[in-house]
Hints:
single chain, alpha+beta, 3 domains, three-stranded mixed beta sheet, 3 strands, Transposase_TnpC_homeodom, Transposase, Znf_dom_IS66, Transposase-related
Amino acid sequence: MPSDSLPDDPEILKAMLLAERCESERLCQIIKELQRHRFGRRAETQREEQMLLGLEDVEQVAACGEAEQDARAPEGRVTRARNRRINRGALPAHLPRIEVVVDIDAKTCPCCKGKLHRIGEDKSERLDLVPAQFRILVTRRPK
Length: 143
């Protein structure tokens, strides 16, 4: 706006200044919202591997603290170990179990052509949620 077209009345000038300030604040708010949209929370998220690196440091500090406690008071180590094992792998027995056996097709040895025999197996259980029904999937992997 050219300076010669400005009014001489101070009240009108104040009103014009306030209007320009309001417009400036509105435009600044729009810029902030656009920046938040462009560079906001989604852009600041980290990959899972990166977050695990940060947690690894915390776990190492906690492990060092537990090791120092074990060195000072060995009787506390037994109780902490017992607490860690509470309910590990103890899924309720009343839930139905569906067993899946993951086995090989050929039961003969590729070298000597003799019959293969089982030397053991790994067994894992995990809780599976079917809508309105719980069941346990048991996976066996013969060795």
